Amino acid sequence: MEHKLFIAINLPQDIKTTIRNAVDLDKKNVAELYTDAHPIPENNWHLTIKFLGNQPEEALSVIEDVLHTVVTKISTPVVSLRTLTTAPPKRPPRMIWITTITPTNEALGQLKHMIEQGLAAKGIFQKGEAHPAYHGHINIANLPEGRKIEGHVTTFPSTLTFTPATIDLMESRLDSTGATYSIVKSIDFKPSV
């Protein structure tokens, strides 16, 4: 049996609440952007670190071992969110994202690189499109084609910052209502010293 897997950092509830409030305000200010948008359920909001695609059952324990090894070698990243924007950049908008700041991208990029190296050493590779540079984002809504508004950016009054407790191996499943994500395994980041 295969599992459609990705590695992610999930959001604490207080950050989700602050994002929801920012989105509600943005909807009032730019209502036409959200017309016919398909919001992503809050329980699916996350930062993808590494997409792995379909992997066999026996890969689960190997991926977990690699994640355990990586978190012992890296400082727990600090995640800072700063803007709400249409995405992808420089193309007709198809999504609304919450984006991370440069230091977060650098820290999570290093984490992603170490995970990729550890997985490659065990013969586990991503299936699908690869992106060398890391640019963190949380997809909060999908937009219909033909959206006229692009380049929309709203900066939060203050940066939303949190230190994640875990990095999570996640599974994606499609059903009649869309994609649902579940945690296969949570690996604790080491305590900060």
Walk me through the structure.
With 193 residues, this protein is of the alpha+beta class. It has a single domain, classed as Cyclic phosphodiesterase (Cyclic Phosphodiesterase, Chain: A, Alpha-Beta Complex). 29% of the residues lie in helices and 38% in strands. The chain is built from 4 helices and 9 strands, in the order βααββαββαββββ. The chain has helices at 13-29, 31-34, 59-73, 102-121, and strands at residues 2-10, 38-39, 46-56, 79-87, 95-100, 137-142, 153-162, 166-175, 178-188. Strands 2-6-5-4-7 form a 5-stranded antiparallel sheet. Helix 3 crosses helix 4. It is globular and about 50 Å long. The model has no long low-confidence stretch (mean pLDDT 91). InterPro entries: Cyclic_Pdiesterase, Phosphoesterase_HXTX, RNA_CPDase. Residues 36-97 form the Phosphoesterase HXTX domain.
